[in-house]
Amino acid sequence: MKNMRTQERIANGFIHSILGILSFVWILPIFWLVLISFRKEPGSYTSYILPKSYTFDNYIKLFTDTSLFNYPRWFLNTLIVAICTAAVSTILVLMTSYALSRLRFKMRKPMMNIALILGMFPGFMAMIAIYHILKSFGLTQTLFALVLVYSGGAAMGYYISKGFFDTIPKAIDESAMLDGANKNTIFWKITLPLSKPIVIYTILMSFMGPWMDFIFVSVIMKDNYQNYTVALGLYRMLSRENIFMYFTRFAAGAVLIAIPISILFIYMQKFYVSGITGGSTKG
Amino acid sequence: MVKKALTSIHDLFNKYIMCFIKGDLSTRLSGLIMGFGMFTRGQIIKGLAYLFFQITFILFMIIRGLDYIIGLQTLGTVGQTRIFDEVRGIYVVYPGDNSMLMLLFGVATIFVVISFFLVYLSNLKTCYANQVSINNGIRPRNFRQEIDFYLNEKYHVTILTIPVIGTFMFTILPLIFMILIAFTNFDKNHQPPGNLFTWVGFNNFKDALWNDPLKSTTFFGLLIWTLVWAVLATALNYILGMILALMINKKGIKLKKFWRTIFVITIAVPQFVSLLLMSQLLADQGTLNVILRQLGFVKDFFPFLSNGDVAKFTVIIVNLWVGVPYSMLITSGILMNIPVDLYESAKIDGANARVQFMKITLPYMLFVTGPYLITQFIGNINNFNVIYLLTGGGPLTLNYYQAGKTDLLVTWLYKLTVNEQNYSLASTIGIFIFLLSAFFSLLVYNKTSSAKKEDEFQ
Questions:
Q1: pLDDT tens digits, residue range B334-361?
Q2: What angle do CA B186, B378, A166 make, to 5 degrees?
Q3: What is the rounded CA–CA span in Å between residue A161 and residue A222?
Q4: Residues B91 and B113 placed together within one structural domain of the fold
Q5: B-proximal residues of A, 101-120, CB under 8 Å
Q6: Which residue of A lies nearest to B328 if distances are taken between CA atoms?
Q7: Lowest CB count within 10 Å: A99, B64, B151, B159, which one?
């Protein structure tokens, strides 16, 4: 018995050290990013590892030197787009998933199948076509176009919240119906208040999208630097002609958006997990 | 399947033809003037809406729509021309047909016609229903009742209209447009508005599969690498993520929350930041090579990203950095749900940790997370970020058409679109990617029953 306990203790010590090494490996690039953001010397490659001297300039210049890379403007752009996208796509997603989860109509199954099939096409296969659709409305290179692109097809992501709505007992709806409530009232006054976690999850997920995407923005904005979002702007800082001057500033800008997103993500990781696995554990 | 669809279409038409046969005069007239049977039976606003829709549609078709549909056949006949204006002494550009807009508007018009047809049928149905209910002595719904009806019995129509329109505009229409592009010769040399492009049938598919040696070598080379990548990336991430989760959740391990948070942070850093950083770190002159040089392991540099075979290895390893925390998060919840008594009885039978993992944990996990695995697999086939940001598909090779050794089909598609403007080939590749995903989804979908049990569960 004693022998087993020491064995157990050795095993645990072993696992602790593996976890220690792994977390070191995993955290290293991020730590390195933070280091670069404080590095005084410019350039993407250095012949040494630790910076020779440290400075806050990279952060300060990000907000003061806006001649070529207007970071504060981009930050504001992204914030506006993200808020509008979150509002519009959350409503679209929740309405769609409520209808597909709670209401029964002839087109329900076909619609779900169509969504499934559409989801199998690579996402940005359609981006050129979207660009021309927006252009025929005269909307390209505007923030409004970005909101449309990010939230227009949002309904396709109904799956996770539908899974959540599926778990709310139907008896609640039925008793409300006996009290004379119609479907509209049930949706807004009963189902939504019961689904706070998934509402928050949907809001945050769609809020985070515009901070991460640089492909659709680059197609829609082309060379309109003023309307760039943070992601595309930062991406442009690493282009061949800018990387030497702006690499450290890129790191600073990246740290500034990584912090809020990390906080959001840590906060909502449990929704994330139950959302992903929700569909499968029921099987 | 096809037979079922045909009979349902047949039934549909029968139903509407019945509306004509059994309908009275005003029902029949509403086949000509939409909403007529609603005016005569007191549904003024609804009738007006239908009539308005009909008039707009007819005007649109006369002014534009017919031309758009006719234009679809040729995609334009008159190219852009430059004619010397002798009076002013300059070349004047006369715009010709714009094949791309003709295709886009043509497709959109077809959908307008389809939706008109559906509204037309619903018009007939409503008018006939009005007639029947009046014969039975019930007044048709007035406007207020109509609104109530759409907030209750027909709530799905109310609630789905905007999402459907949005999906249609930004997903379906663009996709159909791009699918059609795959059957044209829309590339660098056929670029509107300067030049026309036209239908070429299956030429692009033939080029990609056998006709054009360079393109087909590229296609099959990238296809194989895409599959190898997707299998390795999915399997390794899954297993290592599960092992990590097992280690963190093991009894007696301290600071569980701390370990988990560290790994979650790496998910939360946007991929374009972490991966671009990694590509700098792993470059020939990058920091990792500096370290290796200082330690004396390499003389000059180790080609992490600049040698094709090494780069393939590197992207898989870096993808572990990206993906293992995800699968750790996903699997740890499920791992805790495995019934404990399974392990206890195994222990009594003398199974050691390895046997327990192989005989209990892994089969259970594979059973529960099957659908998740397949979505991961398809996600990896389409894993644009890791490849594009890390290697950019490089190192480039002359054996491939506009692609590098680590390019996946998706990143090739992207490059063909953005750098090459070879839209027709890009769309063809997109269709192949779709077929690939669809094939694997179907394979698994047939084996899971969760979709069918949906109603029982509630």
A1: 777 777 788 888 888 887 878 888 888 8
A2: 115
A3: 34
A4: yes
A5: 103, 105, 108, 111, 115-118, 120
A6: A273
A7: B64
d(CA A206, CA A228): 18
Quick check: A29 and B171 CB within 8 A?
no
Q: Which amino acid is at B331?
A: T
Please give the DSSP secondary-structure letter assigned to residue B5. Answer: H
* pLDDT one-digit tens code per residue, A96-154: 999 998 888 888 888 888 888 888 888 778 888 888 888 888 888 888 989 998 888 88
Question: pLDDT digits over B107-147, tens only?
Answer: 889 999 999 988 888 888 888 888 888 888 777 777 788 88
Q: Is A3 on the interface with B (CB under 8 A)?
A: no
Asked if A29's CB is within 8 angstroms of B274's CB, the reply is yes
CB contact under 8 A, B171 and A149: no
Considering the domain boundaries, does residue B43 fall inside one?
Answer: yes
Q: What domain range is B29 assigned to?
A: 2-201
Maximum distance among all alpha carbons in chain B? 102
pLDDT > 50? residue B254: yes
The answer, yes or no, to whether residue B438 has pLDDT greater than 70, is yes
Residues B193 and B238 in one domain: no
Which of A35, A40, A30 lies closest to A61, judged by CA?
A40
Number of domains in chain B: 2
Three-state secondary structure string covering B153-196: CCHHHHHHHHHHHHHHHHHHHHHHHHHHHCCECCCCCCCCCCCC
The four Cα atoms A113, A115, A121, A127 give a dihedral, to 10 degrees, of 160
Q: Do B166 and A92 touch (CB under 8 A)?
A: yes
Cross-strand bridge partners of residue B10: none
Q: Which residue of B has its CA nearest to A45?
A: B286
Whether B100 and A132 lie within 8 Å, measured CB to CB? yes
ipTM for this model: 0.83
Which spans in B357-406 are helix H?
362-368, 370-381, 384-390
Same domain, B248 and B343: yes
Phi, psi of A39 (to 5 degrees): -75, 140
Tell me how long chain B is: 458
pLDDT value for A280: 40
- B93 forms beta bridges with B82
Query: How close does chain A come to B133, measured CA to CA in Å?
Result: 22
Mean pLDDT of B283-312: 83
Whether residue B193 is preceded by a cis peptide bond, meaning omega within 30 degrees of 0, is yes
Task: Tell me the shortest Cα–Cα distance from A113 to chain B, in angstroms.
Answer: 11
Minimum Cα–Cα distance from B171: chain A residue: A153
Where among B158, B177, B201 does a domain terminate?
A: B201
Domain segments of chain A: what residues?
64-282
A56-60, A253-257, B192-196, B214-218: least confidently modelled range: B192-196
Nearest residue in B to A103, CA atom: B156
**Exposed / middle / buried, residue B123 (Cβ in 10 Å: 0-12, 13-18, 19+):** buried
Q: Tell me if B160 and A45 make a contact (CB, 8 A cut-off).
A: no
Q: Which fold has domain A64-282?
A: MetI-like fold (1.10.3720)
Cα–Cα distance for residue pair B54/B419, rounded to 1 Å = 45
> Min CA distance, B285 vs chain A (Å)?
6
Q: Token pair 């599959």 is at which residue?
A: B227
Are residues B435 and B337 part of one domain? yes
Any residues with CB less than 8 A from the CB of B78 and at least 6 apart, and which?
Answer: B96, B97
Do residue B177 and residue B289 come from a single domain?
Answer: no
Residue A11, CA distances (Å) to B239, B263, B339 in order:
20, 22, 23
CA angle, B294 as apex, B291 and B296 as ends, to 5°? 110
